Amino acid sequence: MNRIRVVQTLEKISKIGATANGMERIAYSEAERQAKQFVREQCEQLGMTVREDEAGNLIARKEGIDPSLPAVAVGSHLDTVYNGGKYDGTLGVIAGLEIVRMLAEEEINTLHPVELIAFACEESARFNASTLGSKAMTGFLDLDSLRSLKDKDDRSIQEVVAEQGLEFESMTNAARSKEDIKVFLELHIEQGSKLIDRNKTIGVVTGIAAPMRLSLTIDGKSSHSGTTGMKNRSDAFLAAAELSLIVEKAALAEEQYETVATVGVVDVLPGAMNVVPGKASLKIDIRSTNGESRKRVLAAIKQEIERVEQSRNVKVTIDWQTEEEPVMMDEMLVKKMATICENRRIPYSFLPSGAGHDSMYMAKRWPTALLFVPSVDGLSHHPDEFTEAGDIMTGIGVMKEAVLAYAIEVNNKSKRRKA
């Protein structure tokens, strides 16, 4: 493995979309397109065939001895959140690229084709909808649920994808048959601190905690802040604040299941210092690998809504609610990854993923494995996001061994010459 090359590739991609406040390579943006173009050029230099599907996923293929066999696919995403870091998603794409580079340098041929996939729109930052590329590839993309989506600049998803040369109505044509892929493997930063806390180098993910999301609107009554007595107010913001604490309390009650809940967006209107807020909205994210635990959090929130309405003299409406099912990784692949770590004497740990990944949808169609490498200080979705180069190389090494195991190495000219 070429450590310097991996670091240099990461730095080159990280210059695309870099700002003073972190990475801004949001989904279906010009910056994301440029990053995909860079990866495309690198893959074409390796003799891979490269295409972009109807959803904007970049798919590079190193042909196998038998092209009719299903591919061993490796990948992740290149889009980022606003003010994000340079490792999230990008690391998984670079890992796949480095594996193919090593196969070429070592003159390794495989029976099965090897694919590198850079998924489109994994992050929900732009449209409050995530994993669009992997949903499209696996046949789970629901266009009707996306039609009304707009970004913070009030631009529709239809308009945005059209600028990338894509047709919104054709995105579902990116679905692939079950026979196309043998296994899918993803390397990702942990985005938490469990590996570092446990002094482990590799996290073998057992399951992904899918999100349940809902949006609440609180209608109170705007009034003058100086003339309206405290007991006569219908303060929408204070009701929102109370509901936010209820969300926290409900999640803490489910701590044994590692269930978490977050109020990530709060909007307050009219937004004037001398006006009692008459309207507020909350966007809530609830995650767990235990579906029943997640439901209990939601039930606790809903139960408290009526009490808050009465005590605060407001009306609370659930505008929308989405729910995705937690997904478990393939048991045989999980065991294989653990065995590779044991044979290489790499400290590893089994753990769930609290964050969603493209693996979540790939696992619904093909056997899938997700590996984590440590995130320093547990940081992610932050400009200071960082993973040690040594840990990155260890992760790529484990991934390479898994790729060769499933793609089936048929010869190695370099080793034969040495022998």
UniProtKB/TrEMBL annotation:
**Cofactor needs:** Zn(2+)
Q: Provide the binding site for Zn(2+) 2.
A: 88, 123, 381
Origin species, per record, is Halalkalibacter oceani
Q: Does the keyword Ion transport apply?
A: no
Q: Write out the residues that bind Zn(2+) 1.
A: 77, 88, 188
Q: What is this protein called?
A: Zn-dependent hydrolase
Family from the record: Belongs to the peptidase M20 family.
Keywords in alphabetical order = Hydrolase, Metal-binding, Zinc
Coiled coil (residue ranges): none
Which is one Pfam family of this protein? Peptidase_M20
Which residues hold allantoate? Answer: 213, 274, 287
GO molecular function annotations of the record: hydrolase activity, acting on carbon-nitrogen (but not peptide) bonds, in linear amidines; metal ion binding
The record's remark on the cofactor is:
Binds 2 Zn(2+) ions per subunit.
The Peptidase M20 dimerisation domain extends over: 214-308
